[in-house]
Amino acid sequence: MNELSLKYGCNPNQKPARVFMENGSDLPLTVLNGKPGYINLLDAFNGWQLVKELKEATGLPAATSFKHVSPAGAAVGLPLSPVEAKIYWVDDLGELSPLACAYARARGADRMSSYGDFISLSDTCDVDTANLVKREVSDGIIAPGYTPEALEILKSKKNGNYCILQIDENYVPEAIERKQVFGVTFEQGRNNFVINKELLENIVTKNHDLPESAKVDLMLSLIVLKYTQSNSVAYAKGGQAIGIGAGQQSRIHCTRLAGSKADNWFLRQSPQVLELPFLDDIRRADRDNAIDIYIGHDYMDVLADGAWQKVFKTKPEVFTEEDKRAWLDKNTGVSLGSDAFFPFGDNIERAAKSGVSYIAEPGGSIRDDNVIETCDKYNMTMCFTGMRLFHH
Predict the structure, then answer these.
(1) CA distance linking residue 200 with residue 363, whole number of Å
(2) What residues pair up with 137 in beta bridges, in sequence order?
(3) Catalytic amino acids?
(4) pLDDT in tens, 162-213
(5) 287, 190: one domain
């Protein structure tokens, strides 16, 4: 199949729409079920590249949850702790396969943003992963293969209309890529830069401690950034992205946005949140929304009289700013990647509030000395990679 017709482009008024191979070859994917849309395919192709590179860099199965051409989460297939299984809503599924663990982490890091995601998997989708996907609100999935049982499970989603794509894992795109904007064709070499541990060898801070686990997290953050709309930064811990800030014009706003997501990820693990007395019949999305509001500044939206009764069996106590700060101070060993240099030390000051201990960024700012000095102030380890990772 050389061409695939689409219902419309980014918006319903943008017709006609299609994807096709200019060189006359076959498309590198097969539609197994449903009908993909324009944005679905943008998410699918970006997500597949991300998980493929993440698997190659770490040797572990990988998954990502994409929304609007940026990842909401990405992770490798490390085992889940009991607390992680609970905050990702998979504690009732028993022991999961490594691939299912990867998707549980990718989906669970920022469940609000992952609602209605497009999923990319590095490995053949198994039954555990399919059962996890089945009960989430998702637009579609791309993987190099599916077991027969997993495929049947996924086909049952969305009244049989769930989009299921199979990618040719041996496909290698042409070295030159092109796109049109305003009728003008842009051309550039593909970003084939390989991210590996050697990229982290130029440590510029006084602290040179960089454990293997941090190297994995830094590689993960940089690979995530390679496929995230810029400007972008990514916080990572334990083999998963825990906060991604995408598409901000100012880097400090990226750092704040991603940091707030990382903070929310850790706050969800606090006793105050784990013990929230939800009604038995509350929907998963409503539970996620309630948690997001409860740990935020607008907590009275779910704690006011007449509101809490719709969500909780009993009225929870306010999660005070002091209690939240005390809990967040327990989060340490976080890694942070940036797709371009940090221009000022204010980014490091914000990162420190979210437990960052390890940083990878290109370097090259006229204020590198200020950034390094601020890292030294917090005894952080920072690597200069020398490579910018903008993506648009």
Answers:
(1) 12
(2) none
(3) 67-68, 231, 392
(4) 999 999 999 999 999 999 999 999 999 999 999 999 999 999 999 999 999 9
(5) no
